[in-house]
Structure formats: C-alpha cells, structure tokens
Design goal:
The complex is a heterodimer of chains A (370) and B (324).
Chain A lengths: L1 H10 L5 E5 L5 H27 L3 H13 L2 H26 L7 H19 L5 H30 L3 H23 L24 H21 L1 H11 L1 H6 L4 H28 L10 H11 L4 H24 L6 H21 E5 H8 L1
Antiparallel strand pairs in A: 1-2
Helix pairs in contact in A: 2-3, 2-14, 3-13, 4-8, 4-9, 4-11, 4-12, 4-13, 5-6, 5-7, 5-11, 5-12, 6-7, 6-11, 8-9, 9-11, 12-13, 13-14
Chain B lengths: L1 H29 L7 H22 L4 H29 L4 H24 L9 H4 L3 H4 L10 H19 L1 H11 L1 H6 L4 H28 L8 H14 L4 H20 L4 H4 L7 H5 L2 H16 L20
Helix pairs in contact in B: 1-7, 1-10, 1-11, 1-12, 2-3, 2-4, 2-10, 2-11, 3-4, 3-10, 7-8, 7-10, 7-12, 11-12, 11-15
The chains are: A mainly alpha (370), B mainly alpha (324).
Chain lengths: 370, 324
C-alpha cells in the first residue's frame, strides 16, 4: 500500500496553478482591481444591451448618465434616493460588523413606516404638529427596534439562525401593513391617500429633500465615530471577529448582540420615518421596495465602512436610475435595471477574490525553488 | 367535506413548488453552501422552461411528450447555469455566500421579468401547453381542482425520495455530507471537495428551477403567475429548516406549507368562520401563518439543540485548503 502510494507521489506533477492568500495588499492596488472590475462589468452590460436590442453600447452609456445625472431634478432625485438607501445601510452596518446576518431590514424599515403612518392617521390634526412629529419619530424608532430585537433575543439565548428569522419577520411586517391598510380603508381598496397638511417635516432651503439628506449626512459621521472610536464599536468588532475572544476578555456577547440589534432596528425605523414623514406621506406594502436587501450590498461592498458607503450607495442608485433610463429610451422592460445591477455586482463580488488571493503558476514557483 | 378535498387538492400541488425548491437547497446546503439565490434561480428556471415551451408551441405539431421533456430540460439547464455562476463565485472565487446569493436573487428575478415580458408579446403562448402538464386529470376531470395533480407533482416527490436515498444510503451521499460537515477532513481522505460542491450546487439549482416552471405550468397557469415565484422561493429556503435538512420530511412539510399559504384565502369562506363576524382585514393576519410557523419551528429546533437536527457544520463557510 505504502509502496504504491510512493509510486503515485513520484508521478504526480504539481498542478498548473495554485492559490495563495495575500497577507496584505496596498490600498491603491485593491482599488485598481475594483475599478478594472467595474469597467469590465460596464463592457459586459454594453454587450448584453447590444445583444438584446442591437443598439450602440455608447448610446447606452450616454443614456445611463443622462438618466441619473442629466438634469437638476434628476440630481436631486439621485441625492434623495442615495440618502434613503444610505440610511438603511448605516442602520444594518453595526449588526453586520458583529457578523449578525440581518436580512430583515426590509421589515424593520416597513414597521417604522407603519408606526409613522399610524401616528399621522390617528393623531393628525388632534395634537400640535411638534408633538405629532416627535411621536412619529419615537414610535418609528421603537417599532424598528422591537422588530430588530426579537431575532436578536433568540440568537443571544439559543443561537437561533438569525438570517432566516429576520427574513420571515419581513413577511410578517408586510402582512401587518396589509392588515392595517384594509382596516384604514373601509372601501377595501387598500390604497391610503397621501396625508398632507399635518405633521409635515420642516422644509429647509426651499427643498423638502434637504432635511433628509442632512439627517443622513450627520448619521454617517456619527456611525463612523461610533464604530471606530467608542467602546461599543470596539465590542461589536471583537464579537464579530471571535465570540470566544470576546468572552475571554469579559465582553457579554448576548448583551452586545441585543444592544446592537436595538440600535440597528431603531435606525431602520428612522429610515421608515424619513420615507413616510418626508417623502411618501402614506404607506403601501411595497413602501421599502427591496431597499432593505440592496442596503446589504451597499454595506458589504464598502467593507462596512460608513464613509465608503457614500460611494457604494451612489454606485447602486446611479446604476438603478441610469438603467431605468436606458430601459425607457430603448423601449425595454422595467426589469432591465435589476439585470444591469446584478451583472455589475457579480463582477465586484468576483473581483474581491483577486484582492484577497494570488494565483501562482507552476513555472513561477519553480524559479523560487531553484 | 367537499371544501376539505378541494382545499387539499390546491394545497398539496402548491406545496410541490416548495418541495422542488427545498430539495434543491438541501443538496446545496449539504455541500456547505447556503444558497440565498434559490428564489432567483427558481425564477430563471421558470423563465427558461416557459421560453422553450413557447417556442415549441409556436412551432406547432410538436408532440406533447417532447414539449414536456424539452421544457423540463430547458428549465433545469437555465437554473443549472445560475448554479454554475454561484459555484464559480463562491467555490472557486471564495466570495461571501450570502451576498452572492442575494445578488443572484436580484439578478434572477430581473432576468425572469425581462423574459416573461418578452413572452407576453406573443400572448403567453406557453400557456397553451397547460393541459399537457396537467395530464392526466386535465382530461379525466377537467375544470376541477384535480387538474392540479399533474405529472410534475409526482416528479417532485420522486426527486425528493431519490435525493433522500442518495444522501443517506449511498457513498456519494456520504461524501457529500462529509464535505458539508468538515471539508478539510473530507479533503484529507481524498474526496474532491470542489467537485462535490460544484455538483451539488448545480444539480440542486436545476431541481429548484423546476419548481418555478412547476408553479406556472402546473399550478397557477396564468400570465401573471411569475410574479409570485420569488416569494415562494424564499418560503422554499425556510422549508429546508422546517424539514431539518431531510428531503423526505420536506415532502410532508411542503404540503403543510402549501396549506398554510392558502389558509388565509380559504378560512374566510368557511361558514363557521363567517359567523364569528371578524373584519375582512383579519384575512391578512392569517396570511402570516407560514412565516410565523417557520419562525416557531426554527426557534424550537434551536432550543432543543439536538445534534441530528442541526445544519451542516461548515454551512456558510468557504473552504480554502491552505487555511487551517
């Protein structure tokens, strides 16, 4: 047996290439790789568009830029959409740093929307506006926090899988909204009109988007400080890296999980408050529209760094609005933006490999030996 | 009694959508990969199958057997391609499984909506093949709920039973489980870890893709049906936990999920329920049932913490040989 093994070993040649983990990579190099990946992805998008509608890819890129950055109105829309997406991404980031896979932001934001709308519906005009707005904010934060902390309690106590728990909570939230919509609209239409005139958020500089953008900008800086320069932020990182280490140095893991998910859920509730209070003024089951999932991409692509998330949220909103314009100009289905976003994300996800690992070919290794 | 039978004849076939999805996901998870792209993969499977069927229907004079076989094949291959993409990214490129999976779902749902919009321009001709997929009851008892008991219902059960036998009774299944539990040990005894991961993911994705096709061609049979597939796909992922990673338990679980999913629309039509005088909006709360039940099962299985009911030990962790 041993003999035959030896014989085999003699015959085995080294494989053509093998993979080595890079210890470190200079920052500029990692960004060069990412930019190459994004450019390659845009090239593929151009080819795909050409195959679908036989149109010049350059027209597509032009249409994409026009759609997202083409006019003052579009720039404001871009900034507003970015702010909302960034807000949700910031909300989920502390949980993800802790390796708590919260894919329930969708539901946490939605219950925030629901709480805000409920305040407007039941109390609108009955209490002074200042109190109403304060109540809207507080209930939205509470609703989001409750929705976030339920899976966290089970995770902390029994290690219940949080990914599926939070996912299921999304649907419970959706049907809760459907329930209230039917209750609030006795005609059974389930479409609640915009509630205007009461509990309006202040308009700064003549544009209703400015307040939202400002709030999210402050939140971005605050989150950066919280995660990098506070004791809480440190504890989150340690729990994320290794629960055993955390226990060893005296951090109570369940406490950190629960505290972080209360914060994360409450900030999702804040996003819901901004969506209903500052933008939609009403609610539907699709109020969040998948942004809870997109936010995971924003956060992950930025390596959970709040400042870099400004860039990644811009990229995703740019893609979405640009591709929507392409679909409109080239007379394609409204599903086109999802396809473009998917292709570009695949490239970015794939390129991380070349940042973390190095491919070493056989000949290269032999030279090292000799 | 008639109500009960009618309910079961709707619930059980609907559940088969979940059964395809969960069987596929179980195979993938047994290889240690949590594929959150299953909803998107089911979408692509549906679109691929429908596109093939539409082409065959429009070509005319194609025997029914071929329409079914080629439709299934196209669906399996389209979904399998998505599985290949997932494997390249997570197995070879060692990308984060959750992020890759979520992207697969965004992408897959987009691809499906795009293709279905295209098929709609020719009036959803694939729906003309509906009676073939609903064979034999579409001929024997046309117009009744029996029609949902089409051929793909039995195929789903056969696939689940075969998957269960392969996992528990064969060497291939043993190796696959070893890869999912401890890839380093599996690698050390000479199992080709990468090949098993690729194989399980691609075959699993193909099976899940059939679920999407099943929902349109066998169950719902309407031009709008495709819009529900993503939601059903997420429930399939949940069913994996409900079934404790065992395909044969998934058969019963899927029927139960089908029943829970439909309960919200059936219970209000029961006379005894109407006498309670609850408001209409209450039906929306009933629709929470499948999700709430999943959460309860998830919690109970984690509280009991029995060793044989746990997910594969290396689930969600990419394997890199040189990292010990």
């Amino acid at each position: 047996m041993a003999k035959s093994l030896n014989k085999g070993a003699g015959k085995t040649r080294e494989p053509l290439f093998h993979i080595v983990k890079r210890p470190t990579i200079p920052l500029w190099k990692s960004w060069v790789i990412r930019i190459i990946a994004i450019l390659a992805a845009f090239l593929v998008c151009g080819i795909v568009t050409y195959l679908l509608v036989q149109r010049n890819p350059l027209d597509m890129y032009a249409s994409m830029f026009r759609g997202s950055l083409g006019s003052k109105r579009k720039l404001w829309k871009l900034a507003k959409d970015m702010a909302v997406l960034l807000c949700i991404s910031l909300a989920i980031t502390p949980a993800f740093r802790m390796k708590f896979w919260n894919i329930g932001a969708e539901g946490q934001v939605l219950v925030g929307c629901l709480a805000t709308t409920a305040c407007l519906f039941y109390l609108g005009g009955k209490v002074p506006d200042a109190i109403l707005i304060a109540l809207m904010l507080v209930t939205a934060l509470l609703a989001g926090a409750v929705w976030g902390v339920i899976p966290a309690l089970f995770k902390a106590k029994w290690k219940t899988n949080e990914t599926l728990f939070t996912l299921m909570m999304n649907y419970v939230a959706t049907y809760l909204v459907a329930f209230f919509l039917l209750t609030w609209t006795p005609d059974g239409s389930s479409t609640l009109g915009r509630i205007e005139g009461v509990g309006m958020l202040p308009v700064l500089f003549g544009n209703s988007y400015v307040l939202i953008i400002l709030v999210v900008a402050i939140l971005t800086v605050a989150m950066y400080i919280y995660l990098n320069y506070t004791k809480h932020g440190y504890e989150i990182s340690v729990v994320g890296e290794s629960e055993n280490t955390a226990r060893y140095i005296g951090i109570s893991v369940p406490k950190v999980i629960i505290r972080t998910m209360i914060l994360s859920g409450a900030l999702c509730g804040l996003a819901g408050f901004l969506i209903v209070g500052g933008l939609d003024r009403t609610i539907y089951t699709e109020s969040v529209g998948g942004q809870g999932f997109t936010a995971i991409m924003v956060s992950w692509l930025a390596k959970f760094d709040p400042i870099v998330m400004i860039l990644t949220s811009f990229l995703l909103i740019f893609l979405d609005q640009g591709a929507a314009q392409v679909a409109q100009d080239f007379n394609m289905s409204d599903a086109f933006p999802s396809i473009i976003t998917g292709i570009i994300l695949f490239f970015i996800i794939g390129c991380e490999f070349f940042i973390n690992y190095k491919v070493v070919f056989r000949s290269a290794k032999k030279e090292v030996k000799e | 009694m008639k109500y009960v039978l009618d309910f079961l004849l709707n619930a059980i076939p609907l559940g088969m959508t979940f059964l395809y999805g969960s069987t596929g996901e179980i195979l993938t998870e047994k290889a240690g990969h949590l594929n959150l792209g299953i909803p998107g993969i089911m979408c692509v499977g549906a679109a691929g199958g429908c596109a093939m069927i539409q082409a065959l229907v429009l070509a005319g004079n194609v025997p029914g057997v071929f329409i079914v076989l080629l439709g299934l094949l196209a669906s399996f291959l389209a979904a399998g391609l998505m599985g290949l993409l997932y494997s390249v990214l997570t197995v070879s490129f060692k990308a984060n499984q959750n992020v890759t999976g979520l992207t697969m779902t965004i992408f897959g749902a987009g691809v499906m909506r795009f293709i279905m919009a295209g098929l709609g321009q020719q009036n959803h001709a694939y729906l003309k093949a509906l009676p073939i997929f609903r064979y034999p009851f579409s001929n024997l008892l046309p117009g009744t709920s029996w029609q949902y008991m089409g051929i793909m219902v039995y195929l789903a059960i056969i696939i689940a039973v075969v998957a269960s036998l392969v996992l528990t009774k064969t060497k291939v299944g043993l190796h696959l489980r070893a890869v999912g539990e401890n890839p380093a040990t599996a690698d050390a005894v000479g199992i080709n870890v990468g090949a098993y991961k690729y194989g399980a993911t691609i075959i699993g994705s193909g099976i899940a893709g059939l679920g999407g096709l099943f929902y349109i061609m066998n169950y719902a049979g309407s031009p709008e049906a495709y819009k529900s597939i993503e939601t059903l796909g997420w429930l399939s992922v949940a069913l994996v936990i409900f079934a404790l990673w065992r395909p044969h338990l998934s058969i019963f679980g899927s029927a139960l999920f089908g029943a829970l999913y439909l309960a919200g629309s059936y219970i209000p039509s029961i006379p005894a329920f109407q006498q309670l005088g609850l408001p209409m909006s209450f039906t929306q709360l009933l629709k929470m049932l499948p999700y709430v039940v999943t959460v309860i099962v998830l919690t109970i299985s984690s509280v009991r913490n029995k060793r044989e009911d746990q997910p594969p030990a290396a689930l969600g962790i990419n394997y890199y040989r040189e990292e010990r």
